[in-house]
Amino acid sequence: MEWLHKSFHELHQMEIYAIFKARVDVFVVEQQCAYPEVDEFDLQATHIWLHDNQKMVAYARILPANSKYQEVSIGRVLVTNNYRGKGYGKQLMKQAIHYAANHFKSNIKIQAQQYLSAFYESFGFKQISPAYLEDGIWHIDMIWEHK
Fold first, then answer.
1. 113 φ, ψ (degrees, to nearest 5)
2. 45-61 pLDDT, tens digit each
3. Which residues pair with 141 in a beta bridge?
4. Domain extent at residue 35
5. Model confidence pLDDT, tens digit, residues 124-146
6. What is the CATH number of the domain that holds 83?
7. Which segments constitute the N-acetyltransferase domain (predicted)?
């Protein structure tokens, strides 16, 4: 298995396909959310993922400050169905936070599904908004402070 970090322009066609397929499978199909999964933020994101013999294991995208939020953000965090429950989500967040903190030296803001708040709190994120409904799922905004 190997962790990869690439800008959109560095991605190969099959990598783009694997990323978009995993995101649609998890967020649109599994969570039954009809929304524009592929968006303009993909073009400016750093895409980070773990693959196992060309199979997507875990994925997130990191957006620079002043794109989606004033702060750097981590989003589209997922572990594919066959790899869940094996600690890959924790590895992914460690990789994403490390990358964002070292490359951007900024606070990190996330839009978290509310039921995952304890997971994100375990990495030092703190809730900064009340819960709100987005695409039929309760979310909260959270912040990680760069030290």
1. -65, 130
2. 999 999 998 889 999 99
3. 111
4. 2-144
5. 999 999 999 988 889 999 999 98
6. 3.40.630.30
7. 6-147
